[in-house]
Every structure is written in C-alpha cells, then in structure tokens.
Amino acid sequence: MDHATGNLSGRVRVRFAPAPTGALHLGSVRTALYNWLFVRQKGGVFVLRIEDTDVARSDEATLEDILDGLEWLGLTWDEGPRVGGPYGPYRQSERTQIYQEWAKKLINTGQAYYCFCSPEELEERKKEALARGEAPRYDGRCVALTAAEQDELRAQGRRASVRFRIPDKNEVVVRDIIRGETAFDRKTLGDFVLLRSNGSPSYHLANVVDDILMEISHVIRGEDLYPSTPRHQLLYEAFGMRVPQFAHLPMILATDRTKLSKRHGAVALAAYREAGYVPEALVNYLALLGWSPPDENELMSIDTLIQTFSLERVGKSGAIFDIEKLDFLNGHKLRTLPLEQVTELAKPFFSPEALPQEFQFQKAIALTRDSVTTLAELPQACQTVLSRPTYSCEILAELAAEPQNAECLRVLKDGIAALESMEHDALVALFQRTGKALGVKGKPLYHPLRLALTGKNKGPELIGIINLLGKEECIARISTCLEHLMAVTKKDGEVE
Ligand code: GLU
C-alpha cells in the first residue's frame, strides 16, 4: 500500500463526527463527552469532523448551533472547524476528491467495481427480495462486467456507482472495548456503495478514509452505528490499514425503555440550555448515563470526571434518561458553583429591564439560588424579593392579629435607620438589641419584618434580603406596610 498511514504513532486521537442535519441531540452530546473525557485524560487530540456529505440535508445554521452547543458545554476541540489543524479540511464536503482517489485504489486492486444498476432497478429487486421474505442485499450482478460491457453501458448514458466487493471469507470479527467480540456473517453485508453515481462518497467510505487519514486511534460512537462496523473493518483491511479500537456506546432510553426521542419530550441540547440547565450539570449527568464511577459519589466536577472516566466501565445495556436526577444535579451545581459563574450564566434569563444593577444582581442570585432547580426560575425568585410587595388581606390580618407586631416593625425600622453598616454582623446585632428591648425572640421578632419586606410568608433568609434591599428600601417598605396595617386596624375598629 502506498498510503501506509493510519494511526501508527500510538498517540491517542479521537473524533466526534456529527452530521449537521439536525439539532444536537443529547445522545450525540453524550458521545462527544465520552470522547472528550477519554482524550483529555490521555492527553491526546480531540478532532471535530463534520460529516456533511448529505448536502441536501446539511445546513450552515445547524452546524453553527452544533459548534456553539459544544463550546457552551466546554467540550473544546483541538482540530476542526473554527480552529483548523494539520489534517484538514475537517468538513467532508470539502474532501470529495480524496474519497474518489481512495475508491479508485480499490477499483485498481479489484476490491471494488463499477455498478451500473439504476436506483429504479435496485428498488424493484429490493421489493422482490422482501416479497420472497429475504433480506434485500445487492446481488452482485455488475461484479463480472468486462471493460467492453462497461463501455457499452456508459455509451447508453448509464452512470456508474462504485461498490465494495465483500471479500470471500466467512465472517468478520469485530472487537469492541465495550461490547467484546462479535462475529458478523459476511453474507449478510452485501456489496455496498462507496461512491454514488454523482461522485459523492457513501458514509462508509468517507468515514473510514477520514479516520485513516486523520490517524484516529479510537472510534467512540453510538451503538446505532455498530452494524456499520464490519463493513468499516473490511475497508480498513482492503486499504491495508490497521483497524482503530472501537467503543460503541449504549443507547439512551426513555423510562418506557424505548430509544429516547422527541415523543418523550425535549431531546435537543438547546432545549436544556434554554430551560436553564448549566453545562456542569449536563456534563455530570450525561457522564453518568451509561458509565458508572468507581465509587458511589455521583456529584462530580469536570476535573474529577476526566480523572476517573474509563471506557471499561461503560455498560452494554441502554441507559435510562431520568430528568429528576438531572434536576437534582442542576440544583446542586447552582448552589455550589462559584457565585460569579452562576451570575453570568443567569444573565440571559433576565430581560434587560428586569436586570437589577450589577451589585444587586449578584446578591439577588446569592439569595435565591438555593431555592431553584434551573436558571430559568431565577428571575421569578429574584422578583419576589426585589419588586415592591403588595400586602394581601391574609398577610395584613396575620400582622394585625398581634399588636406587638406593629411595635416590633417600628423599632426595627428606627434601628435600621440608625445603622452605619448593613452587613451581616451589624444586622444580627440589631436583632439582638431589638429582641432584648422588646422582650421577644425568634419568629415573633423576625417574621413581621419578613412580611413587611416581601409580603410573603416564605423566602430566602431575612438578613440577606435586608442587605440586598439596602437601608432606604427597607425603611420605605416597612413604612408602607405600617400604613396599610394602620388602615386595617382603624377600619376594624370602626366596624366594631
Ligand atoms: N456522522 C455520524 C453520525 O452523525 C457519526 C459517524 C461516526 O461516528 O462514525 O451519526
């Protein structure tokens, strides 16, 4: 063989090879992630290759969305679109000539041949085979055409595709890191197309030629592509190349144990991003979808995932998608990631008018992030603290039920007005002083103030709310609340 490339360097090089024909599905994201975790652990190279040979279905905007989605998740690639690299071009639509040359090599060695059967003829024979209860497969009728016969067919205006000639051996044994060894009967494969009659490559040819030329050492991809693997293996052998290591990942299933699809709900990464899931949670969650960590702890940082991930611990059977677990992880990441990071991630969820000033914004996030599952819930949670409360009849009745409440609010209002600092310790001291002076402690001391400041019975911790609102806003809210309270008590008095 003249092109004895393939990966001989021993260097780990993996690739993620999406087709830009539809939104990035969670299953594809998981494939990208496993490639990425594997290669980052090994210090190898992550290649992003775009399999856009289906020109009619491929779309630029979809491609950009895929790249943006991967970047947003932090799954950076070392070679590919936007970054370039020494093995380019990384888009298959720009490599047609390469595939044609490689197909020609197989024609020259008799391992591939021209096929003049038209799509209509093939369709007709397929139907006949199905009617006979047989699996449709190319019957090999063009394999023995002589050069003269071929010329004649060309002269008739027929255009030839190129087919791979399945070698005459009984079985093809595929070795897979996850699935072990499988023997495929070559008779079931059928001579498959390498180049279509318009000169464009089939998935099998483009995929294998690129994996050879890009020196891919490990092919990590979804199990749906497992049936293609014996064909790929035969192609490597025909080219005289070493077969890369294969690892086919289990499918992602819905709770009804069928393949996760649109009918089960959102499957596109973008939908989860828009719903307010953070990259760290999705990465942690998807890492666990098919792989199990060596110890029980499933709350993992990206660094820990890189250190502990292994293909050997990826299961064979389908992994069930569980939104509750994703919610749990997302809530956990929102509470534990650095506040600055959560604040940045939260920004797109706030409309510009509703976005509090910078310093207030971070405080509002700090106060509310414990109470939400997704970023999308933060504007509402912040709003309940930041917007001026309206006092419902129930809240006013609750305050009016105990005369001491109004007194408590007045004293706290004066106390806040006299404060020099609104920081945590100063506020704690204020509550202590007020409690002592009025002879109250616990809920009777704090709760009236919570009702006055937020108009609600529940919410984030009170000291944080006071600090966030600042002195003037607190005083204004307490004053308004007291006015309402007085109006109610007066009215009640008149009725009596
Ligand atoms: N382009 C294929 C797909 O999107 C992936 C091919 C591969 O990983 O070998 O399904």
What does this protein look like?
The chain is mainly alpha-helical and 496 residues long. Among the domains are: 13-80 and 204-249, HUPs (Rossmann fold, 3-Layer(aba) Sandwich); 97-173 and 188-201, Glutamyl-tRNA Synthetase, domain 3, CATH 3.90.800; 393-495, Arc Repressor Mutant, subunit A, CATH 1.10.10.350. Helices cover 48% and strands 9% of the residues. It has helices at 26-42, 60-73, 96-108, 119-131, 147-155, 203-213, 229-239, 269-274, 279-288, 302-308, 323-336, 339-346, 358-368, 378-386, 393-400, 403-418, 424-438, 443-454, 462-495, and strands spanning 13-16, 45-48, 112-115, 161-164, 171-176, 180-185, 193-195, 218-222, 245-249, 252-253, 319-320. A 3-stranded antiparallel beta sheet has the order 3-4-7. Strands 1-2 form a two-stranded parallel sheet. A two-stranded antiparallel sheet has the order 5-6. Strand 1 (13-16), helix 1 and strand 2 (45-48) form a beta-alpha-beta unit. The N and C termini lie far apart (105 Å). Mean pLDDT is 93; it is low at 1-5. The site of glutamic acid has 7 residues, from loops. Glutamic acid is lined by residues 17-19, 51, 207, 221, 225.
Between the first and last Cα atoms, what is the distance in angstroms? 105 Å
What quaternary form is this?
Answer: single chain
Please work out how many helical segments DSSP would assign. Answer: 19
Strand order, biggest sheet?
A: 3-4-7
- The total beta strand count reads 11
The level 1 CATH classification of one domain is Alpha Beta
CATH architectural label of one domain = 3-Layer(aba) Sandwich
What is the rounded Rg?
33 Å
Low-pLDDT segments: 1-5
Mean pLDDT metric: 93
Please identify which CATH superfamily of one domain we are dealing with: HUPs
Examine the coordinates and then state which fold CATH places here, giving the name of the CATH topology of one domain: Rossmann fold
| Structure classification | mainly alpha
Strand content: 5-15%
Helix content: 40-55%
What is the N-to-C order of secondary-structure elements (H for helix, E for strand)?
Answer: EHEHHEHHEEEEHEHEEHHHEHHHHHHHHH
Biggest β-sheet, characterized? 3 strands, antiparallel
| Ligands, deduplicated | glutamic acid
Tell me the overall shape.
elongated
